[in-house]
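Priority: medium. Attachment 1 of 2:
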């Protein structure tokens, strides 16, 4: 079973790129972030024609998350992160596909930091940690994936000294991520590639992609039930080089059958 995550940076504006990627790589499940489309503007028919069922939580101009499944049913579990009934951002959606709980998230960026946006980010991360603990305790196979907007270590960013005060790399952010990981989650990419330079995001400015001046901020966290089935993982780096592509590259894992 191949599961992918992709921050599409505008699902309608970059629909040709998304459809080409789906056709070429054919993930069984694709988690999308930053749809930047209201609920009624999600391109459901085009996704269906590509062979995928979909659930999504849209928001006008900003945010937005979706889960697509190829030739499989999607059993939606929730479309909001619990813990703050006043939070209206569409940043989390969760479903069961082929017996696996899949949480798709678009964690807040948090810049400028310090400030209200950074406080919101840290609060969101704590809510996510509490929800992840409940999923862990459920005993079900779980995959938590998406754009975390977290650079875990200096090894995950080009020239880390330039990012010290950025919300993606500030000490508070990394400590919150470590607190989440302390529950026992496995970082799929780092399990298989512990020392390699691997990025998932390249800015549009200063030829960042051409220079490979990137960040690793799109992650797969696995509990023991899914970690035991992990056989492969990678980044479709070439997609970032396509015309009118997102500034993120798709990331994927493969799980063996039970």
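Attachment 2 of 2:
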């Amino acid at each position: 079973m191949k599961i992918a995550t992709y921050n599409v940076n505008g699902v309608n504006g970059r629909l040709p790129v998304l459809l080409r990627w789906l056709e070429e790589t054919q993930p069984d499940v694709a988690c999308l972030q930053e749809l930047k489309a209201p609920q009624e503007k999600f391109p459901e028919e085009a996704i269906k024609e590509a062979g995928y069922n979909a659930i999504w939580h849209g928001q006008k101009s900003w945010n937005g998350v979706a889960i697509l499944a190829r030739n499989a049913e999607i059993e939606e579990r929730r479309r909001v992160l619990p813990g703050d009934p006043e939070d209206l951002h569409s940043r989390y959606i969760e479903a069961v596909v082929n017996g696996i709980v899949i949480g798709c998230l678009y964690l807040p960026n948090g810049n400028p930091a310090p400030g209200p946006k950074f406080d919101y980010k840290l609060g969101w991360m704590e809510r996510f940690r509490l929800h992840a603990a409940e999923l862990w305790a459920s005993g079900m196979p779980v995959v938590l994936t998406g754009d975390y907007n977290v650079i875990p270590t200096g090894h995950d960013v080009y020239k880390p000294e330039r990012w010290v005060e950025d919300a993606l790399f500030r000490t508070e952010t990394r400590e919150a991520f470590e607190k989440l990981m302390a529950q026992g989650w496995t970082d799929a990419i780092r399990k298989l590639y512990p020392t390699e330079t691997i990025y998932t995001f390249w800015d549009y400015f200063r030829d960042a992609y051409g220079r490979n001046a990137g960040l690793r901020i799109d992650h797969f966290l696995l509990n023991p039930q899914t970690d035991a089935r992990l056989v492969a993982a990678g980044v479709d780096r070439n997609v970032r080089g396509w015309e009118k592509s997102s500034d993120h590259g798709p990331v994927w894992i493969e799980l063996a059958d039970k």
